[in-house]
Amino acid sequence: MIIVNSLTSVTPACPWQVAGGPTGGVPNPPPVQWSFDVLIPRPVDAIARALDPQSWPKCNPFFQETYLAATSSSCCSKATTATSAMTATCTPKLGPTGDPQAASAEPVGKPYGPTALYEHACIADDCSSCPGPTRCDVDFANLLCIDTHYDKPMPFSCMTSSANRYDVGYKLASWLRGELLGQEQQQITDDHGGLSATRATDKEKVGLPGNDWSVVHVDKTLDFQDSNVTGAVGKYMQALRDELAWQIAEHACCDVAKECWLFAW
Fold first, then answer.
1. How far is it, in rounded angstroms, from Cα 40 to Cα 21?
2. Which of 202, 194, 196 shows the shortest CA–CA distance to 170?
C-alpha cells in the first residue's frame, strides 16, 4: 500500500539513543492491534510532555491537528483506559469550518481529564483540502475521550521530575469523517489504547549509560465498520511493523518545552 512509503518518508531520524530497539508487534486482525515497548534515555516527565495528546502534532507527523474540544453534551465522565466501561458519546460544538470548537488548552504535561480531544490525522499534500474531490491516502477526524495522569498527585509542575510513571488513556467518542486511499466515509467504530512512560528499573538499565532511562509503552486497538477495511489495514500494519515501532520511539524522543502550572490532581 502507498501509505508504507508515506510513513518512511515523513519520519525523521530519532535524536536519542534507544536500547536494543523497540519490542512488540502487530497480531492478526480483526481488530487491528499493536503494542510496543522501547527504552528511551529520558526522564518520565520529559517524555510525558511528548505523549500529552496536545503535543501529538508536534511529535508525530501523522497528526495534522489535536486540541481539547468543546462539547454540547456531557461526556468523558469515566476513565478512558482500554479496560473501562465508558460508553459516552460526545457531541462537539462545531465552528465555522465544520470542525469542533476548541476548549481551553491545558499546560503541556499537566495531568488532566477525562475530557474530549479533537484529532485530525492526515497524509496528503494539503490536508485542508481532503474532504471532497481531493484524494488523500489517510484523512481521519475523530473526537476522543482522553485521560492523563501520573502515578502520584502533582500539585506543581516542578514536582513532575519525581514521577515514576505517566499514562495517557484514550477511547473513541465520536467518528467525524474518514478517507482511506481515496475512499470516503471509511467509518471507525473502535479506537482505544494507551501510552505510558515508566521509570526504568535497575535491571532494565544494566549496561546502559546514565540513569535517566524510561520504558515507553504504546498499545492501540482500531476497528472499521467495513470488515474488509479492517483486515486490509491490519495486514498493512503488519508489513509496517518496524517503521511503526521506530515512529513510536521518535515520538517519545520529541523535545517539548516545559510549562509551569499549579494545583493539578
1. 9
2. 194
Whether the Cβ atoms of residue 76 and residue 116 lie closer than 8 Å to each other? yes
For residue 116, give Cα distances in angstroms to 50, 65, 120, 178, 256: 18, 14, 13, 19, 22
The DSSP symbol for 201 reads P
CATH architecture of 2-264: 2-Layer Sandwich (3.30)
pLDDT at 98: 78
State yes or no: pLDDT of 110 exceeds 80: yes
Going from N- to C-terminal start, the domains of the chain cover 2-264
What is the rounded CA–CA span in Å between residue 121 and residue 178? 9
Four-residue CA torsion sign, 39, 42, 43, 48: negative
The whole-model pTM stands at 0.90
Radius of gyration of the chain (CA): 18
